[in-house]
Design goal:
The chain is an all-alpha fold. The chain has helices at residues 4-38, 41-76, 82-111, 122-150.
């Protein structure tokens, strides 16, 4: 049974959501109307092309790959405890993001005309990152699984009492 107070609260929450949605739509409209006055036709076309490519890249590449990776991790980590699976997912996500950023830097390094710009060994550092990340994740997963397997009350350090 709903009370009058909960109905009023739900109505006020809906009113706030509608007001925020309208305010957001208004700001987006204001920004879109300002684009032609701030950008020239060539810049506007470039922006629209970039936005279209970003949508295609996100929906056509990133979402399917992350869905496949998530399904694979679920299958791979199905025997793991939730904490261990979270460590595995976090390590792989961290490595993937750093690899993506490093890929951009490596591309910039390959086309740089000035040899003093981007002179670090980014590929070597990325290899070290993945090595350390794999070792740290394996150690953390091992610790989580071992502590869960022994669990409270099953450790050998507990004092045995007589009945």
């Amino acid at each position: 049974m709903t009370t009058v107070r909960s109905v009023k609260t739900a109505a006020s929450v809906n009113a706030v959501r509608i007001a925020l949605g309208l305010a957001g739509a208004g700001l987006i409209g204001y920004g879109l109307l300002g684009l032609p006055t701030q950008l020239g036709p060539a810049q506007l076309l470039g922006l629209l092309t970039w936005l279209a490519a970003a949508v295609l890249l996100h929906d056509g590449v990133i979402v399917p790959l992350s869905t496949l990776a998530g399904a694979g991790l679920t299958r791979l980590g199905s025997g793991l405890r939730p904490a261990s699976a979270a460590v595995l997912r976090g390590a792989l996500m961290t490595g993937a993001v750093v690899t993506l950023i490093t890929g951009i830097v490596l591309k910039a390094q390959s086309v740089a005309r000035n040899t003093s710009v981007l002179e670090a060994d980014y590929a070597g550092h990325l290899l070290w990152l993945w090595t350390i990340l794999a070792l740290a994740a394996a150690a953390a997963i091992y610790a989580c699984e071992r502590s869960a397997r022994t669990g409270p009350g099953t450790g050998e350090s507990q004092q045995k009492t007589r009945p």
